[in-house]
Amino acid sequence: MVEIVNVGICSSGKATSGGEKCMVELINQFSRLGYKQEIYLGFEGEGRDILPHSNLRLHVIERRKLKNRGKFFTLLAYFNIFLKSFFYVKKFNSESVIISHSDAWPDVVFAALLKRFNREAQWIAFNHMLLPESKYQTNPLLIRLYNYINQRAFFYFQKRSDLLVLVNEMYLNQVKKYNQNVLIVKYGREFKADKIRTFEEREIDLCFIGRFYPQKGVSEIPEICQELSKIWNGGKLKFIFIGTENRMSEDLKRRLAPMASHFEFEFLGFKAGFEKYDLLSKSKVFVFPSFFESFGIVYLDAISVGTPVVEYDLECFKAHRYGVIKVPFRNNKVFAQRIDSLLRDRELYNKQSTEGFQYSNNFSWQETAETLIGYFCTTPMQVES
After folding, report:
1. How far is CA 137 from the centre of its chain?
2. Are 296 and 320 within 8 A, CB to CB?
3. Are 11 and 104 in contact (CB under 8 A)?
4. Is 90 exposed, middle or buried (0-12, 13-18, 19+ CB in 10 A)?
5. Helix, strand or coil, per DSSP, at residue 88
6. What are the residues whose beta carbons fall under 8 Å from the beta carbon of 329, sequence distance 6 or more?
7. What is the pLDDT of residues 7-50, one digit of tens each?
8. Strand pairing partners for 183?
């Protein structure tokens, strides 16, 4: 029987990003399909999202949570778990499938070691996002250099893999020079509302979900709000922010404070599951000013409850086809105008809400898992009831 060996030693098994969400959902789907699995995680994760299963064996290399103490200490923690991971290299049965769930160097090097010790095993290497063009870069020079070296390491070691998996078709031509055997899969939808709320049933005007981080376009939000305050005359707007707070969120609060007469800002912290989707479904518009993404899974979160999205018109968002209004990159005056249009024009709003909700039916984690299974297994598994 095929045994799946999941490598995610830069993760705690908590779905806090698109890549981690993909890993968690695929593992849960493989369990549902009856596969025996080994899972290698780096850190202990509070509220771990991987569901327990009799066929699942979990290895946590560092029995402490990864604390948010800055990028330097995070890098040291990665070196620590990488060195400890050598003690977990072992032989599996000949039908094993190794899946490295990120392009982070500790994951890909550990997967390469497992492949070396299990030459008959298949290795599937995930790459969720390539480095963006310089105009989308927001990190300091040292971090950009580290990311560049990390990606070079990934493409060097993944040459030993049997399959390179992408989640965005825009990267296909770029990676073909490193690996001709490429599979493109879609992220899945986590949640679908039974019915979508009408505009009148939504008590929150604007919503942002994500990390408070330059890549997410957080620094653009004050200008968007400033432009919106110039044209909106329908009363005070309620704007909620969902995400783990940090120094950047504190800076954002400071920059938004002068606009308190036009907006009611609320920072709610990290939310997940039903609570997150309930807040999303109560929001009229999802504000998504990211500079680049692997896919932008929060877009799926929003349209799954019929909440229209406003975002920059970027190549990485080509699959965002319905339930979304796109604006030129960093043209925040137009961004504000499009938000204003959605809040004023009920016909436009209902069209975007309905079309996005229907489009979300095209995304399924079960379909994503079965696409991968179709590559490494020709014998269907018995699905659990």
Report:
1. 18
2. yes
3. no
4. exposed
5. helix
6. 135, 312, 313, 314
7. 999 888 887 888 999 999 999 999 999 999 999 998 887 668 89
8. 165
Higher pLDDT, 363 or 70: 363
Query: How large is the average pLDDT for residues 200-218?
Result: 95
DSSP readout, 328-378?
-TT-HHHHHHHHHHHHH-HHHHHHHHHHHHHHGGG-BHHHHHHHHHHHH-S
What is the residue whose two structure tokens read 């269907």? Answer: 380
pLDDT in tens, 64-110: 777 666 777 778 888 989 999 999 999 998 889 999 999 999 999 99
The dihedral sign for the CA sequence 297, 300, 301, 302: positive
> One-letter amino acid identity for 80?
N
Q: Where are the beta strands (DSSP E) in the chain?
A: 3-8, 36-43, 56-62, 97-100, 122-127, 163-166, 182-184, 204-209, 237-242, 263-267, 283-288, 309-312, 324-327
**Whole-number Cα distances in Å, 287 to 11, 260, 283:** 27, 18, 10
Q: How far apart are CA 218 and CA 210, in angstroms?
A: 9
* H-run or E-run covering 39: strand 36-43
Which pTM value belongs to this model?
0.91
Q: Give me the count of residues in the chain.
A: 385
pLDDT the model gives residue 379: 42
Task: Say if CB 4 and CB 343 are below 8 A apart.
Answer: no
Distance (Å, rounded) from C-alpha 46 to C-alpha 65? 8
Q: Identify the band that residue 138 occupies on the pLDDT scale cut at 50, 70 and 90.
A: confident
Distance from C-alpha of 240 to C-alpha of 204, rounded to nearest angstrom: 8
Q: Please name the amino acid found at residue 78.
A: Y
State the amino acid at position 3 in one-letter form: E
